[in-house]
Amino acid sequence: MTAGRPGGDRGQTLPIYIWMTGILLFVAFAFFAFAQAASARNGAQSAADAAALAAAQDARDELIDGLELSMGEGDDWLDWIAGDMFTGDGARGAADALAADNDSTVIAFGPAEVNGYPGFRAEIETKYTVGDSIIPGTESKHAKAHATAIIKPRCDAAPSSDPEKAVELRCDGGESIEIDPDDFDQDDLPDASVLFSVHLAD
Question: How many Å apart are CA 59 and CA 55, to the nearest integer?
Fold first, then answer.
């Protein structure tokens, strides 16, 4: 009787061992599936951020071009400094290009406003899928994400400024810039990033 117990214990332990091993394997595969999904979401968010920022940066470039052209042709150049004059005609193309660089496609795009500042909202979908996993359907599921980027003027003029005369612009960080429309040279303008900041709003 006593001699038969070790074999009986082993016989009872083996099914438990197999069962526990199965559970551990399932948990490992589940964690792997969640990691795949998280990686896809992160990639999608990076693509959305890049697309929205590209659109806003394109609009900022348009503001600089418009500011240069408006000099000496009227009194509206201060409106360009205020960031009110861009059309955003090239913004969608810039967003599409950056999304494509991140292996994604823009599926929704449009103007946006956050705290009074204009910008663009881009929604993207990855061209790649989450991949095969123990969760059904992930092999055909694409990740989606959205982002909004805004253009914020960093300089302003005193309300009493005369746009037909030299104007002193007060900029973030205490920097001061003087622009004289009657004696204007393109080199007088600082870098676009000094006049306007572009950043994600959410």
Answer: 6
